[in-house]
Each structure stands twice: as C-alpha cells, then as structure tokens.
Amino acid sequence: MFRAGRRLHAGDWRVRVGFWGVALLGLLLCASVRADVLHLATGDDYAPFTGTTLPGQGMLTQVVRAALAEQGMAMTLDWLPWNRGYLKARRVEYDATFPYVRSAEREAEFLYSAPIYLSEQFFFSRAGDRIELDDLPSMTGRRLCYPLGWQPAAMIQQLIDEGILLRHSPLGLQECARLLLLQRDDLFIADRHLGNSALRSTGAEPSAFHRSQTTFHSNTLHFIVSRQHPRAAELIERFDRGLEALKASGDYQQLTGRYVE
C-alpha cells in the first residue's frame, strides 16, 4: 500500500519529465558547443601573421578566428615550434594548423583552404653585399637562412639540392635577420612584412640591410587540415564559407589593411 504522501500525481510526473527533458537538452547543447571548438596549432615569431606578443596574436590569427566565428565555431590555439605543430596536425593531434604555403608534399597529406593571404617574397641581404634576383646563377656557396619547417620555392629547393645554396635552418626568421647582421648567413627570403619585422627585431638601422628591388616569388597562405582527420572536408568547406563571408562584409579587408605598409 502506498502512503498518500508518496503518491505521484500526474502533475508531478509532468514536472519531473519536464525537468529531465530540459537537462537532456542542456547536455545536447553543451555537446554541440564542444564539437564546434577546434583545437589549432601555429608557430610564434611570424610577425605580422602570427605571434604571441602581437595584437590579437597576429593578423592571420585574427582572420582565422573571425572566419571560424562566421560559421559558429570557436578555437583554442597552442603555440609550438613550426615543425612540431605541423607533425602533430598531420597526426590529427590538432584539428588544423596555419598559415602554410602549398607544396606537393603537403598537399599529399593535407586539405587546403582558400587563400587567407597573398604573400610576395623578396630577397633580404646586407646593404654592403646586395643580392638581387639576377644574381641567382652566380650564388654558388652563398648561405641561405630559411627557418625549420618552411618550404622553399621549387627554384630555391633545386639550388639547395644541387649544393649551390647552403641552407641553414634556425627556428625563426628573427634569428635569420641576426645571423645576416653577423655575416654568418648571406640572405633570407620572406614576405615584405615578415622580412621588415625580422629586421626591426635586430635593433639595427634599416640602412644596414637591403631588400631586393623586385619580388622573387608570390604564394598564398592557407588554413590546412590533415587528410586523416575524419571531418577534414567538412572543416575546410565551413572555413571557406566563413572566409568568404568575412570578405563580403569588408571585415577581412579591415583586419589585413591595418598591416599594409
């Protein structure tokens, strides 16, 4: 026999069912939110594109974060040495990484987003030992500083493979600028903004360096996802839609325009 005080009325059942329904909905919503948080990796000291000390952690960090937000996605970001971050992203220890140029080797392992930035490459050398594009055929024994994990253009890679250029690979471009100043390396190749930022980090006068008069090469930078990632195609598609919306609204131009010299 049930005691009257413990008898459940129809209204009580409705309250309990309503309570658990709300709780279940809350759990589902939380799971949905967690599913839309991407875990990314990138490298430091790549000003103005990425950097822990830069406003907004760098121009392209802001672009990536805003493009994801357009699709209702958030992100966490870990700062790792470039090569380590790349390898971890390839093994799907991270959902994606950025910013990377295209190469045949990478395209075999990653899906690429639409371009997030067009980069124009220049030669940077010492003012007292200027190097221009026309000097390439006679550069035997020249010491090229090209950071670890960076992929040279095909022409430069061929010169390295043939032993004409001697590649030195420190962890970042700022180190290349210092080594150039110390005459331990002869040149580095970089986007205008990257190169100028690296030169400023040495504290030397701009007149101590020389930037080639013409661009050596143009390439695009991308957000990339490992082909092993179970959601690779979906993440690239959503990122591209977010990037397109960012450009259509004018926000992309506003973000990148702050860094145009």
From TrEMBL:
Pfam families documented for this protein: SBP_bac_3
SUPFAM superfamilies (UniProt xref): Periplasmic binding protein-like II
InterPro entries: Solute-binding_3/MltF_N
Domain Solute-binding protein family 3/N-terminal: 38-260
Top-level lineage group: Bacteria
UniProt keywords, alphabetically: Signal
Entry-linked PANTHER family: ABC TRANSPORTER SUBSTRATE-BINDING PROTEIN, MEMBRANE-BOUND LYTIC MUREIN TRANSGLYCOSYLASE F
Family: Belongs to the bacterial solute-binding protein 3 family.
Name the record gives this protein: Amino acid ABC transporter substrate-binding protein
